[in-house]
Amino acid sequence: MALKYVEEYRDGDLAKKLIQSIKDLDVDPIRLMEVCGTHTMSIFRYGIKGVLPDNITLLSGPGCPVCVTAQKDIDTFIEFAKSEQFIVTTFGDLLKVPGSVSSLQKEKASGSDVRIVYSPFDSLKIATDNPDKEIIFCAVGFETTIPTIAATLLAAKSQNIKNFSIHSSHKLTPPALAALMQTDGVEIDGFILPGHVSVITGTDAYKEVHKQYNIPSVIAGFEPIDILKAILMLAKQNKNNKPALENAYQRAVTDQGNIKAKKIMHQVFEVGHATWRGIGEIPDSGMILREQFKCYDACSKFNMNIKETKEPKACACGEILMGLKTPEDCKLYAKACTPMNPVGPCMVSSEGSCAAYYKYNR
Amino acid sequence: MAEDKVLLDHGSGGKISHSMVSDLILPLFDNPALAMLDDGATLDITSEQIAFSTDTYVVEPIFFPGGNIGDLAVNGTVNDVAMCGATPLYMSVGLILEEGLPIKDLKKILTTMADAAKKAGINIVTGDTKVVPKGKADKIFINTSGVGILPDNVNVTGANAQPGDKIIISGTIADHGITVLSAREDLKMESDIKTDSAPLNHMVKAIIDSGNDINVLRDPTRGGLGTTLNEIAAQSNVEIRLKENAIPIKGAVAGMCELLGFDPLYIANEGKLIAFAPSEHAERILEIIKKDEFGKDACIIGEVMPGDSNPEGKGKVFMETLIGGTRIVDMLTGEQLPRIC
Known about the structure:
The structure holds two protein chains of two kinds.
Chain A lengths: L11 H14 L4 E7 H9 L2 H4 L4 E8 L7 H12 L3 E5 L13 H6 L4 E3 L4 H9 L4 E8 L4 H13 L5 E7 L2 H10 L7 E4 L1 H7 L5 H7 L3 E3 L4 H16 L5 E3 L11 H10 E8 L3 E10 L8 H4 L15 H5 L31 H8 L2
Parallel strand pairs in A: 1-2, 1-7, 3-4, 3-5, 5-6, 7-8, 8-9
Antiparallel strand pairs in A: 10-11
Helix pairs in contact in A: 1-11, 2-15, 7-12
Chain B lengths: L14 H14 L3 H4 L13 E9 L5 E2 L2 E2 H14 L4 E12 L4 H18 L2 E10 L7 E11 L15 E4 L5 H9 L17 H9 L6 E3 L5 H13 L3 E4 L7 H10 L13 E4 L1 H13 L7 E6 L12 E4 L5 E3 L13
């Protein structure tokens, strides 16, 4: 089952040529944001920052789904977990994220039934095996995961599974980019756009943001060669002062994206407001269940309404997610906040920038 | 034995316990010290120094491609004793069985243990069996302890890495952890990956007997290569540098890691060793390892930096990445894969 076309994108000689081309361009200092957490991890894993010239600064963006999940949503998952009536299913990354007073991991240790699933479909099997319990899936993620969760709900409907519901904290990428561009103090000279998300959305999804803010934007894959190529393209756009929307991940991303996945996603969900941790509410940046699927909304089904709580004071996750600060600028980083004792979600998620800095950069 | 499932009575110490020992266990682990059936084994040991190690196995699932909890438990302790530079001789086996475990599963596991012990050349000389009610344990847990004798002048602790040492790994990394993960029911993945569980004591003996200088021997089990090298860097207060493109990994294992988002540096191995040796000896040791049945893919993956090169780097592990960048290889935080051994 060896993966093909991976080695080619990790080729040391090709990387050296790309790095040299970036250096030769000698562009005025630019700040590029890798929007996606997987890019952040790749950049650290391959030591990309260290091989770039000083005129290129990379900033981590808001593209880690766990990191941007509002504390209120985490508290909601935890509240469900506390009751014996429920089995809470979740992707592994969410387990350690601290809510206002607890985490799913702590609740699990105290006896709550919290189960890690690799696919939301696993929740349906758990539902069938446990007819006397309600299974609640913590639906967190971007355009990459939303279609799978939509497909799960369609399956639940066709199989007439009634003891399954979700709490949706889904987020959309393009509105977040627009919100970033409108934020005071944010200085970004180009976006390295997420590869996985774009497989679903297609290049066209970014046209509006690109047009409105005239910002250099390149969709990139996750291998070091993909990322270096995108950086070179963004540097060229800056050098020539010709901002464009380009696709450096053509082996996976088309203009229109995955039409079938998008159709399923919009069949089950509709666009709504969403609260992003550390950033606040961004209009039309979330996905909420459509009326005919409201019966799968855990909060309305069980009348759950958790109060908004304040995020930890000194935690700079919000500013880090917007590229205003780096983890090292945060007072808590590597002191009060470590992967063993995370304060903010950026330190928990394997794709969080604080976790990446902590793991690879100290 | 008449029963087809383990009953609470099998751990009672009464008649049915005895029949399990005499019908099932003794014929498999046949040796004079065990056959005495005294409270403990009396052993002849002629050495100034012995090595002694213990480990407990709770792997889930208990059967996986290439092995099961039984040979894992024997090989694991054989290797821990061998990594002290010792020749493992005797082993104890403690079984904790869950009521209801099929006897045929138990028999299969014990048979595998007997075969593994034979292959390693170690005698299982004492043991114990307890049965707990259904739901109070998960099928079978095994504890093994082993003793071995140390030749004179062997000093291979993790605190002994020296500047200039070359670092050898005896084969591909991450095979065991990924095998167990893909064998789990909840992950429907098919692959031809097998555990690397194997006894390394013959390989270690060949290294020691060759007379080449060797400073560190470790088996990178839980936590993987990354964690073990961090432990050595800290114990010896040295800086370790790895080359990513030198680290051997099977294509299928690398593919699974990519898909699941795991870093193979932190995935468990059960039949690999890491050896640190001075440069001139390392090449000869590498050839010895390559001649062993379990060392064919051995290679040099890095080195210990000279002491004055980078004071900040002491106690740390760095890796030159495929594209020529450098990154730190940190200790694993938290459990990447629970219950892999």
